[in-house]
Amino acid sequence: MRVEILNTGTELLLGNTVNTHAAWFGRELFKLGLRVARQTTVPDGEAIREAIESCVARADVLIVTGGLGPTSDDLTRELAAAALGLDLITDEAALRSIEAFFAARGRPMAEANRKQALAPVGCDVLPNPNGTAPGIYIPPRINGRSDCALFLLPGPPRELQPMVHAEVVPRLRALTGGALPAASIELKFTGIGESDFHQGIDARLAEIEGLEYGYCARIGEVDLRLIGGTDAIARAKEIALWSFADFLISDDGSSLEQTVIALLARHRLTLATAESCTGGLVADRLTNVPGASEVFTHGFVTYANEAKTAVLGVPAADIVAHGAVSEIVARKMAEGALRVSGASLAVAVTGIAGPGGGTPEKPVGTAWIGLAAKDATTTASQILQPRQRRDFKLAASQAALDAVRRALIAR
Amino acid sequence: MRVEILNTGTELLLGNTVNTHAAWFGRELFKLGLRVARQTTVPDGEAIREAIESCVARADVLIVTGGLGPTSDDLTRELAAAALGLDLITDEAALRSIEAFFAARGRPMAEANRKQALAPVGCDVLPNPNGTAPGIYIPPRINGRSDCALFLLPGPPRELQPMVHAEVVPRLRALTGGALPAASIELKFTGIGESDFHQGIDARLAEIEGLEYGYCARIGEVDLRLIGGTDAIARAKEIALWSFADFLISDDGSSLEQTVIALLARHRLTLATAESCTGGLVADRLTNVPGASEVFTHGFVTYANEAKTAVLGVPAADIVAHGAVSEIVARKMAEGALRVSGASLAVAVTGIAGPGGGTPEKPVGTAWIGLAAKDATTTASQILQPRQRRDFKLAASQAALDAVRRALIAR
Question: Nearest CB to B12: which of A22, A298, A311?
């Protein structure tokens, strides 16, 4: 089944907004065993009609995003109907739910919003609980012109994504006659690279009947996606974990910071951070997780050497003797953060983010991670990730969070 | 001049990589007074040829990204030549520079890399100082088949972007016969919204002859882009600054954090941060700027109330009486950070990121910013930005950095 995505919106082509729809649909459709064959972006206006005409000539399913709002440049509904030779009429149920949306917010409905209830005869109006623009599903062969099924969806991700899960996925399953795979999971790993998977397990995964799989390598992370029957997935998961269980972040899509927060909560432990080269990124990532405040209490960004000494009690002599980026300083930072915060665990990271500051012995990309706990010996580990400044910070923050994860699963 | 972008790469359609090329080209071409008329993504392989054929039939300029690497699925070069009926020959200069790239890194050149030196006869090979894949420029009417000019560029942004500035932009200027605008600038503002510009200056900007302009609204920021003759730009900038000079972050594309770091360096001052709801994001943003270590010394993430008291000396009684999200606590956090760090300035932020924790008096989205300086009275300001957790953190970090900017430009 050939699926195409058509994103509409002048803002996407002016560069005001990065188009994240394309990647999101790629991942969601992969879970269903489907691929995006082509993705196109066109500006608001007549170009939409021409693009729909050429897409429906090639595709079995066309998903169109954007242009369903109330303003004069929101024309996707009208242009799709014109491209397929369909008439638009007001859908009374859709109109009532738009009116209800405004009533619930105590605001009057503008006249312009009425057109959002228009839909071609014989099509399904897809409810939008998160906005005023309902989606539209145009089945194939509705007027004999096209064998392509069309979905017209609102542009904002927080409106589009729930609509895809509730309304689009079931219709895609029906269109394929139930041929879509029964299940899919994503296993996230850290501390190993994509080549480890290729060398370690790829040949065995390839032998599993009814399994599709793919890797996605990010900074400090490899995601393994498995789709297929439940038996095939279970077998593949078993193979992956037999080799790489130690490196598993999650099997449910949870990020490393979500996993760390959940583990801390489960063990009723608290965490403090002491950061130099990551500059607050470890704390920032932890506090992106709702509920972080239950387990994360103190973060120290000791960027200057004097801060390491004055705030965390790292002996100035150690910094002079070994340098700020050293095993001993990483350990002392972690121990200092533990002592000052009173938390159960503390993680520290010190490294050279660059572009300046590297030496032959300690090149840009070097970092030491220290981990201290109330009831355990302090440990330290080193990474070397020579990358651009921001990517290095991400890699070092990943290593620091993983040190916490490993300490927690060992309990 | 109609410009289209064709991005190639299966990883873009599987969702492994978010396509940032489209937005980047939108912004870069806007500076030249050009628009992207359409953007298309296709997977590696034969689909590239078909897409090139349909793009060149519509466009005056087609920019193709990706698929110039050494592996068997890197076929853009071959498929573009086939689409246009051109023969590929080895470009000796390109081959020598690929050999030199490997020699400089002490690695042998693989046989597979030889094909990266292939180019159609009569085309320009575009040097790639940052990788092994040279770009290719195919002028219009090279074989009478197409009036479209083609650029084939490598996929990785750190290879592509310098090549666009060095090789593509001059050729685009030549193709338009010098009709492109003389200049463009971007003015970044914070603390005001897009509607302030519409009400305040839009009508006057619209009257300026030879000016194109556009707004880009981000969280806590509006970017005003001006393109046209130098006189038109100067006039527009004068109008914008007459109304909104107080809100100007930069007129050279610098981010708020870059501006703050530069102002601190110019005044030879140091900064400390004390963060609650932003959880380290303010420190993280500051330390993304190379050279931040010269002026940013200490960051405190006092997420728990006890941390605010124990680390920064915020009186527990103030927290009990006024709540952790209050003007007095923001002031005391800033003063505590100033005292503990010995920095010249300290900024503090405390707020309710949600989803939980809001009350009718202090809803989710409330934050207080405190600013303390060695030689000045502590000040505080409030924002209300009811957004999703991450977006609220971004908005609050923007307000905190802007408080520092305002204090520094007042000196």
Answer: A22
Q: What is the ipTM of this complex?
A: 0.84
Beta strands in B326-365, from DSSP E residues, in sequence order: 345-351
How far is B198 from B195, CA to CA, in rounded Å?
5
Q: How many folded domains does chain B comprise?
A: 3
Residue pair A384/A351 in contact (Cβ under 8 Å)? The answer is: no
For residue A186, give Cα distances in angstroms to A117, A161, A255, A261.
Answer: 38, 18, 11, 19
Please tell me which residue of chain B has the smallest CA distance to A397.
B284
How far apart are the CA of B145 and the nearest CA of chain A, in angstroms? 22
Chosen domain end from A250, A269, A302: A250
pLDDT at A371 over 90: yes
Q: Read off the pLDDT band of A408 (50, 70, 90).
A: very high
The answer to whether residues B163 and B15 belong to one domain is yes
Which residue of B282, B287, B325 is the best one to mutate when testing the A interface, meaning the one whose CB has the most A CBs within 10 A? B287
Average pLDDT across chain B, whole number: 92
Give the Cα separation of A45 and A36 in Å (integer).
24
Q: What is the 3-state secondary structure (H, E, C) of B275-320?
A: ECCCCCHHHHHHCCCCCHHHCEEEEEEECCHHHHHHHHCCCHHHHH
- Contact assessment for residue A219 and residue A394, using Cβ atoms and an 8 Å cutoff: yes
Backbone CA torsion sign across B276, B281, B286, B292: positive
Do B144 and B84 belong together in one domain?
yes
Number of cross-chain residue pairs from A and B with Cβ atoms under 8 Å apart: 245
By the 10 Å C-beta count (0-12 exposed, 13-18 middle, 19+ buried), A139 is classed as middle
Which CATH number fits the domain that encloses residue A214? Answer: 3.30.70.2860
* Out of A18, A41, A291, closest to residue B18 by CB: A18
The reply to whether residue A281 touches residue B284, judged by beta carbons under 8 angstroms, is: yes
Question: Whats the size of chain B, residue-wise?
Answer: 411
Which CA distances in Å does B168 have to A362, B61, B64, B286, B398?
Answer: 38, 11, 12, 33, 35
Q: Residue A181: pLDDT band by 50, 70, 90 thresholds?
A: low
Q: Domain of residue B11: give its range.
A: 3-175
Whole-structure pTM over 0.95, yes or no?
A: no
Is residue B245 packed enough to be buried (19+ CB in 10 Å), middle (13-18) or exposed (0-12)?
Answer: exposed
